[in-house]
Amino acid sequence: MKEVVAGVDIGGTNTVFGLVDRTGNVISQGTLKTVDYPEINNFVSSLVTAIHNLVKKKDDLELIGIGIGAPNANYHRGTIEFAPNLAWKGIVPLAELIRKKIDVPVILTNDAKAAAMGEMIFGGAKNMKNFIVLTLGTGLGSGIVINGEVVYGHTGFAGELGHTTVIQGGRDCGCGRQGCYETYASASGLVRTALYMLSEMREDSMLRDIPPSELTAKKITEAAGKNDQIAMEALDYTAENIALGIANAIAFSSPEAIFLFGGLAQAGEILFEPVRSYVDQKVFPIFKGTVKILPSGVSESNAAVLGAAALVWNEMIK
Ligand SMILES: [Zn+2]
To answer: How many folded domains does the chain comprise?
Structure first.
């Protein structure tokens, strides 16, 4: 029998799941439309059945656990708590509901912490004990690993760097506060910066041909690659803010590396190069030159499933 773990990534629209072996091969995968299941018990039934079917389709597979990445997931309690983008309200005891149907360990955490675990077990942090993964998407998620352990804290929700304040009284954040790191250092933060600069600056820009509602981080980084001045300045300001948050994170956890992951990180060197130089300027001097800023070592297409599966493989290795 070959042991496999089911990695499950629950998003607001889709749930992706797959069977992952010990070396990080995704053996098979499937999807469910999360939005089709306003009732959690129906979701759990369909998910468990779908995982069973994947296991049965191949000979000689043994399911040894289920790892789940989900918004507002609580690792300590195995719950999803007050997730704004999911239909299931209040506190959902997801691990318990799944274990009633299938008798294997079920481990939950949020997607950024799962990404950190994926990086540690299958990606670029295999031999590292101290590192941080920043996911630069619509928001900014973070998974912080110190002394070989993902930091969960007292509540299970530790590591919300996206909601540390970088500018007092700054941009409004979806969390109800102002000036949060993610309102500047994310794909949507870059779009906000570019829109502001387009309204304040007079320079020609190829971004002016794009309707504001269709402006994306990808279009801005592409324009920056073609030396569009406003796009370059917007990207530079974003890189400076990413670096400010990194410099703060370095001061409290002294990581060996920071991995940048997610949509905005796809920009590549045009983003990494200024981030590295701003980190060098801003970091507390004792840490200068001690931290590598790297792209994720896990491929974007499989990352969510691998990260979720890594939660269980990590427990097995322990
Ligand atoms: Zn916030």
So the answer is: 2
Q: Are residues 136 and 106 in the same domain?
A: no
Residue 123 resides in a domain: no
| CATH number, position 59 | 3.30.420.40
pLDDT in tens, 104-128: 999 999 989 999 999 999 999 999 9
| CB atoms closer than 10 angstroms to residue 148 | 11
Q: What is the domain extent for residue 92?
A: 2-118+301-317
pTM reported for the whole predicted model: 0.92
Task: Indicate whether 86 and 212 sit together in one domain.
Answer: no
> What is the Å distance from ligand 1's center to 177 Cα?
5
What distance in angstroms lies between residue 187's CA and the mean position of ligand 1's atoms? 15
Residue 161 CA to ligand 1 centre (angstroms)? 9
Around ion ligand 1, residues with a beta carbon closer than 5 Å are: 163, 173, 175, 177, 180
Please report the beta strands in the chain, taking only residues with DSSP state E, as ranges in sequence order.
2-10, 14-20, 26-33, 61-69, 73-74, 79-81, 91-92, 106-109, 131-136, 140-146, 149-150, 257-261, 292-295
Q: Tell me how far the alpha carbon of residue 48 lies from the centroid of ligand 1, in angstroms.
A: 34
